[in-house]
């Protein structure tokens, strides 16, 4: 995604689109358009929506974020003319937008989860997972006609999904370098009225960075703060507890804690600032509890001594990596200030060093308790 193979001519993508915030409306009226609408089946059920002949409802998760699903959506879009509307969470947005982009069909995004509103629908990234090669490995940069953020969709969002979105919002506050905003998001009640005043400012954080670095050649990498470990944890979770896996935002919360831990351990972040931000995260309303983390990860199902190996295997698939013996990490120096290596906003760390840091972090934080210590 955005990286050409050896014989391909690199094409630069550019464009702009509006993000509309719609308060106090009935969300289902947003997709009453002539063209095909691709919807999340959970949204259809929660809102008791009546599908039209041109509408397609899909029940997707990370295991179905695949080229096969893209092919299914492409076939549907080809059979129905006009612009495409995509109504759902981040997984559906990534996959359906990829399908529309491959057909060069204009599309608009209508996110229905907090995570999608704050992250997935901003920036023009589309894509799918690709088997053993990892998460979000294939895709395109493709810009929607518009994004419509209607907070009322969140009325049917369960608490876990709401918390997952708040974790992403907190990450944006860290990137912005705004301690007051971060403190507010960390203690936010799980209510529409609580998050609605912050939506525009949180979306603006990502929008401003993408405006500065649209093709991810520099600063845009900081939007992946916490993602390197998070994606590895998601992979393990989907393999060992597919019926109740960790959510993306839940994994991001843990991933941010680890990125802070690494930043401090390597001397980039002061002990005082580490304690300030880590304590804020640990006491937040959204961080997944330790026991729930172990359950979602399927820790009891792992073979003894296999967890760190599985984490390293997942980390090695991260698309930021430049070398086989190391992985690239987004590290903090201060609120809103990230470590640079030349023009890059990543730091290469050898796998052997990450193994030790990860083991120490999981034990020191209590995420892996004495009962499961042998899994390390």
Quick overview:
The protein is of the alpha/beta class. The chain is built from 14 helices and twelve strands. It is 42% helix and 12% strand.
Q: What best-fitting shape do the alpha-carbon axes yield?
A: globular
Rg over alpha carbons: 20 Å
Structural category: alpha/beta
Low-confidence stretches: 1-5
The description of the largest β-sheet is: 4 strands, parallel
Number of H/I helices: 14
Strand order of the largest sheet: 3-2-4-5
DSSP, total strands: 12
Order of helices and strands: EEHEHEHEHEEEHHHHHHHHHEEEEH
Kindly report the average pLDDT value: 90
Portion of residues within helices: 40-55%
* End-to-end Cα distance: 33 Å
Q: Classify the beta-strand content into a percent band.
A: 5-15%
Characterization of the model:
The chain is α/β, with parallel strands linked by helices and 376 residues long. Helix content is 42%, strand content 12%. It has 14 helices and twelve strands. A four-stranded parallel beta sheet has the order 3-2-4-5. Strand 10 and strand 11 (337-338) form a beta hairpin. Helix 3 packs across helix 4 (114-120), helix 5 (159-176) runs parallel beside helix 10 and helix 9 (227-240) packs across helix 13. The longest helix is centred in the middle third of the chain and has 18 residues, at 159-176. 44% of the residues are buried. The model is unreliable at 1-5 (pLDDT under 50).
